Amino acid sequence: MNMKFGITQQFQCSYLEKEQEQLLVLVTDSDDQLDHQYNYLLGHGFRRSGEQIYRPHCNQCNACQSIRIPVDAFLASKSQRRIINKNADIQVLTSSNSKAEYYPIYAEYINQRHNDGSMYPASKNQYTGFIECDWLDTLFIEFYMDDKLIGVAVTDVLSDAYSALYTFFKPEFANRSLGTFSILQQIEQAKLNNKSFLYLGYQIDACQKMRYKANFHPHQRFINNKWQLITKKST
User: Fold this and answer.
1) Helix or strand or coil: residue 137?
2) pLDDT tens digits, the chain, 235 residues: what are they?
3) Strands 65-70 and 197-203
4) Alpha carbons 141 and 164: distance in angstroms, whole number
5) Which of 14, 17, 86, 142 is 20 to 30 A (C-alpha) from 193?
6) Residues 59 and 70 in one domain
């Protein structure tokens, strides 16, 4: 499979304050075959942001490890089962199309919960540039409380996997652990649709905000260009 890549300049890391970040980026002039290329690259530690396909390429840091869950082997921990039970009153629906009512929830989520990050302040252009992708199918897993939309898990659809792109929700529901709940729902959707893996992006052990991804077992991490199985059970 012929592909061209470029390397970005170094810039301030979004996750580790004292580190500089650099990306390896797929270079392409056409959307033809991009879905097939991404399917391959996802299995080699890449990810997408909008139309861009990238992987961390930092000379002196390997903190970012692509992480995925083999969904048929996954077993929910006691704490994860408690989160499922706590959210039993949430109705879960799916859509294959983005909806206008998603953006206000996204903006509220970014502006209140991530106002110290690179995505602040939220804007409609930033939202569409990050979430939307013309060459890839996307599943929107919707969470409703009393018939009102309270959150969305944006999930890319690949031939043998789902990839969790981003989850956002109304901040007043933060005590319901909706980030974890959304992953559990994505695992369930992956099983229902005969997918082998759910990709969660990058696990960064030194970043507090990212550590929750490591609580799903068993999982696999892409280390030294190989997927390594992590079986330790979280409680």
Assistant:
1) coil
2) 789 999 999 999 988 988 999 999 999 988 889 999 999 999 999 999 999 999 999 988 999 999 999 999 999 999 999 999 999 999 999 999 999 999 999 999 999 998 877 788 999 999 999 999 999 999 999 999 999 999 999 999 999 999 999 999 999 999 999 999 999 999 999 999 999 999 999 999 998 888 889 999 999 999 999 999 999 754 4
3) antiparallel
4) 10
5) 86
6) no
Tokens of 211: 């550590």
Tell me which residue of 23, 22, 26 sits closest to 5, measured CA to CA. 26
Which amino acid would we find at residue 90? I
Domain CATH code at residue 182:
3.40.630.30
Sort strands 197-203 and 161-169 into parallel, antiparallel or unpaired. Answer: parallel
Whether the CB-CB separation of 51 and 133 falls below 8 Å is answered with yes
d(CA 109, CA 104): 9
235, part of any domain: no
Contacts of 66 (CB under 8 A, 6+ apart): 45, 46, 47, 55, 199, 201, 202, 203, 221, 222
Prior bond of 218 cis (ω within 30°)? yes
53 contacts 25 by C-beta, under 8 angstroms? yes
Assigned token pair, 75: 């077993």
The secondary structure of 75-95 as a DSSP string is ---HHHHHHHHHTTT-EEEEE
